Amino acid sequence: RLKHAQGSDTQWTIDIVDEVSGSQRGFGLYSDLALDAQSQPHIAYRIKTNNTLWYAKRTSTGAWAVDVVDGTGHCMREVSLALDGQGFPHFAYCKINGYQYPLMYARWTGTEWSYTRLTDHWRPADKGWAPRIYLDGDARPHILFLHNMPLTGKTGTKVRHLYPDGNQWIRSTVRDSVRLYSPAGVLDAQGHLHVAHVDQNTNMLGVSEVIPQDAAPGLEGNAQNREPVPADFHAHITGAGYVIWQWEDRTQNEWGYRLYGAEAQEGPYVLIADNIPPNATSFLETGLIPGKTYYRYIAAYHAGGEACSVRQLIATE
Fold first, then answer.
1. I need a surface site. Which of 148, 191, 192, 205 has the fewest CB within 10 A?
2. Angle at 9 between CA 266 and CA 28, to 5 degrees
3. This model's pTM is above 0.85
4. What digits encode the pLDDT tens for the residues 136-148?
5. C-alpha pair distances (Å), 302 with each of 64, 128, 191, 239, 315
């Protein structure tokens, strides 16, 4: 069984994401988690018995929708997941093909799964261990990976960075040492990728900065980016059933704003309005019931994700 746990101030709630009967070894192995703008979890995971890659997302009803991303087998070890501004998933993962371990990139286009075998763009012996995927403001993937498994006595282990530029993928070496582990990164407000990695040869934690060409800054709504979220989100009640939501516009490259709401603090949150223009600082919401309590938050969005404000509640007059 693969399970998801969500904590509150008083308890943990655990539900079953996916399960099978019989003996499936390694079910849910090497899972990765991302939250969308409605705070709904999305999970990527592998089934070791047949080495397939799966994807699950929790819907607004609380049910889990499950789909197979790569059912051809040979999916190995870690998988990394990121969500774009439409809530579509992007994956980086490793496959095994004889003595080769090619790095794969998969994404949901809205109608189907799309796949790219990245290591075909240079020497096929390059391996794709421990991949991590991050999306910039144009939903362009940036992928970190180890080009070799960091085993004792193995030389030439490199942390590498990949991103698409037109019809080609650009590769660079972030760090070259004997035994490197666990690369991780974050995109800043200038579109620069900051990379952390462990060098077991020296027992040191290293940090590097990569400056991809024309990388659009990300938003703070996903873990891969750090541009400021909308600030000072609050309500001004103007009359029966009317509320003006106001906030400080702190982002630089948003496409617009989306208002999300719920009738309980724990949700589920649904989209209230998605036509709020960029650089806006207020929105008039109508049709509210006097005397009722509502929960709301505002999110700036672009192709690479969403940046969400803190939640606010109002009791309408």
1. 205
2. 75
3. no
4. 877 889 998 887 6
5. 26, 29, 14, 33, 31
